[in-house]
């Protein structure tokens, strides 16, 4: 009877060992260096605009939790928080408009949740799955990302989103003659250093 119990326990432990071998949660912390850039670009029916995030305002270091599962790097509770008031669109009036569009009085942050990355052999061109929360609404995206590794990790890419997907309304200027287009582009080039 005892031998059967021991064999049963060994078989359970062996099964757990083989099924969780690749899914052990690891953690690290990273710093987004000042050489990085993050911009939100948009257009109006009159001109283009660009809102630049102040990279020095990132709350470094950023904790990263991940495990490997079926050839993917899966992230747990890994988020990049952007304070809305750290964007500079080039002038007080457009900065105020940008804050109103994002409903910053009620939702002062944009949060990017990193979900998973599909690994490739060279890890240069990967696909990242992320969730973006703006003004209390979360949307899922899959985006191609370029990765270069030397001493640090350089990650670059861009993502096109629609303001209407987040229930955001753009202000109208000069009796409705100037309006911001619904589609905006997030352009990022992040130089990341492991702490």
Tell me, rounded to a whole number, the average pLDDT: 84
Shape descriptor reads: elongated
**Would you identify the CATH H-level superfamily?**
Lipid/polyisoprenoid-binding, YceI-like
Beta-strand proportion: over 45%
Unreliable stretches (pLDDT < 50, length at least 5) are: 4-21
Order of helices and strands: HEEEEEEEHEEEEE
- The rounded distance between the terminal residues' Cα atoms is 52 Å
Question: What features would you describe in this structure?
Answer:
InterPro entries: Lipid/polyisoprenoid-bd_YceI, TTHA0802/YceI-like_sf. It comes from Mariniflexile litorale. Residues 78-190 form the Lipid/polyisoprenoid-binding YceI-like domain. With 195 residues, the protein is mainly β. It has one domain (25-194): Lipid/polyisoprenoid-binding, YceI-like (Lipocalin, Beta Barrel). The chain has two helices and twelve strands, in the order H-E-E-E-E-E-E-E-H-E-E-E-E-E. Strands 1-4-5-8-9-10-11-12 form an eight-stranded antiparallel beta barrel. It is elongated, with a radius of gyration of 22 Å.
């Amino acid at each position: 009877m005892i031998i059967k119990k021991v064999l049963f326990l060994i078989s359970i432990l062996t099964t757990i060992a083989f099924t969780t071998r690749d899914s052990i949660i690891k953690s690290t912390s990273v710093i987004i260096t000042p050489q990085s850039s993050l911009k939100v670009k948009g257009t109006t029916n009159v001109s283009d605009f660009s809102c630049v995030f102040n990279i020095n305002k990132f709350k470094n270091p950023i904790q990263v939790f991940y495990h490997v599962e079926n050839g993917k790097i899966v992230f747990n509770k890994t988020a990049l928080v952007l304070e809305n008031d750290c964007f500079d669109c080039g002038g007080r009036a457009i900065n105020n408009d940008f804050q109103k569009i994002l409903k910053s009085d009620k939702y002062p942050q944009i949060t990017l949740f990193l979900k998973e990355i599909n690994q490739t052999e060279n890890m240069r061109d990967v696909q990242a799955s992320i969730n973006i929360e703006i003004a209390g609404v979360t949307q899922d995206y899959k985006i191609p990302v370029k990765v270069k590794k030397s001493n640090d990790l350089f990650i670059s890419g861009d993502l096109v989103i629609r303001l209407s997907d987040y229930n955001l309304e753009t202000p109208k200027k000069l009796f409705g003659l100037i309006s911001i287009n619904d589609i905006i582009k997030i352009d990022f080039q992040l130089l990341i250093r492991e702490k």
